[in-house]
Amino acid sequence: MKHVDEFRDPELTKGLARAIAQASTKPARFMELCGTHTMAIARHGLSRMLPPTVEMVSGPGCPVCVTATEEIDRAVKLARTPGVTVATFGDLVRVPGSHSSLAKERAAGSRVKVIYSALDALELALADPKAQVVFLGIGFETTAPTVAAAVLMAKQKGVANFSVLAAHKLLPPALAALLSGPDLGLNGFLCPGHVTTVIGTAPYEDVAKVHGLACVVSGFEPADVLGAVLMLVKQVEEGRAAVEIQYARGVSPQGNPQARALMEQVFTPVDAPWRGLGWIPMSGLGFNPAFAEFDARARFDLEVPPAADHPGCRCGDVLRGLVRPPQCKLFGQVCTPESPLGPCMVSMEGTCAAWYKYRRD
After folding, report:
1. Of 8, 77, 84, 287, which one is least surrounded by beta carbons within 10 A?
2. Do the beta carbons of residue 74 and residue 165 sit within 8 Å?
3. Rounded distance, CA 247 to CA 37, Å?
4. CA 252: distance to chain centroid?
């Protein structure tokens, strides 16, 4: 098995770029389904290394970006609730809701804590039994099992002041919704390495068999991404559509059954709103009845008015691959990382943030 450092080798990366140029004779358009891939492609200038025949487009792979405005509004309402400490990952703090953000609420005196895992939030609850600590459960199948583990531990310890606002997202239903929408002219998908370590490759089989689109699971180093693109190009050139794994050092076809079992013990699929994609059936996670005591939606009044995004913000269109960031009139003008108007400019995995920081093409 190759060591990760080998996939950072500039000469290997250049060699793969040359191989893609030699192999590619047909126009091909591929979508990456992971925000980490989006950032890697931008940071390392990988798009500029591809031949004119190959185009990469970003999809709904940033968990913070696909979180609907109404979920941000619920988090803001929680932050305004006396006695509540909101524990969240850092990216979410600056995402604007309809009228405020967690950053603004923190500046106004609310207790908003940036943590690095759900277990950190549980530790906050154990350290301060008088506070109600609510963890904001954002992310795909990669993070949901770790949140489930924290909930299980809270139940075992009898922690009564810990709960979760579950806003997790499931990738396969979103992929199905994306494919049922406007034709994006895609030839294949660069599939997410982290998510696939949990769910395995089975969810991509229909994409290849039914839709005729190539799928390759990729790692995150420059040579990983270009190696996966080369595999996609070869499928297009050979007129076939299959599910393949470039990221063999991290992904197996069966995924991680233990992680899935942990997730399924605590959570159950529910309909969920996605920024840009709307409500998608069975694409989110709610609590199973045995763990309902840890559901922040049941513990607090979290009803919010219908949400409204900033007028003119095209983050939703960017997430669906309909436009590139510069096609939004707000991009780089009134919407910047210093004063973001949408989550695609906030998150470290956001397409707009990646383009603003690394790309001007």
Report:
1. 8
2. yes
3. 13
4. 20
What is the dihedral sign for C-alpha 45, 50, 51, 57?
negative
Rounded to whole angstroms, the maximal C-alpha distance in the chain is: 65
Q: List the domain boundaries for the chain.
A: 1-313, 315-358
DSSP 73-124: HHHHHHHTSTTEEEEE-HHHHT---SS--HHHHHHTT-EEEE-SSHHHHHHH
Taking only the tens place, the pLDDT of each residue in 193-230 is 999 999 999 999 999 999 999 999 999 999 999 999 99
CB of 327 within 8 A of CB of 314?
A: yes
- Strands (E) across the chain are located at 28-32, 54-58, 84-88, 111-114, 132-139, 162-168, 188-192, 214-218, 243-245, 267-274, 278-287
SS3 349: coil
Q: Which backbone phi and psi does 51 adopt, to 5 degrees?
A: -70, 165
Residue 183, CA distances (Å) to 26, 273, 290 in order: 19, 21, 42
| Contact yes or no for 290/232 (Cβ under 8 A) | no
pLDDT digits (tens, 9 = 90+) for 94-145: 999 999 999 999 999 999 999 999 999 999 999 999 999 999 999 999 999 9
**pLDDT, greater one: 291 or 360:** 291
Q: Cβ distance 232 to 188 under 8 Å?
A: yes
Model pTM score: 0.93
**CA distance to 9, 153, 250, 268, per residue, from 3 (Å):** 11, 35, 11, 37
Q: Are 73 and 105 in contact (CB under 8 A)?
A: no
For residue 286, list its beta bridge partners: 268
Per-residue pLDDT band for 4 (boundaries 50, 70, 90) equals low
CATH H-level superfamily of 1-313: HypD, alpha/beta domain 2 (3.40.50.11740)
Strands 214-218 and 188-192: parallel
- CA-CA distance, 324 to 196, in Å (whole number)? 26
Dist. CA 47–CA 119, nearest whole Å: 38
Sequence-distant (≥ 6) Cβ neighbours of residue 328 within 8 angstroms:
312, 313, 314, 315, 317, 318, 335, 352
CA distances to 108, 140, 153 from 269, rounded to whole Å, are 35, 12, 21
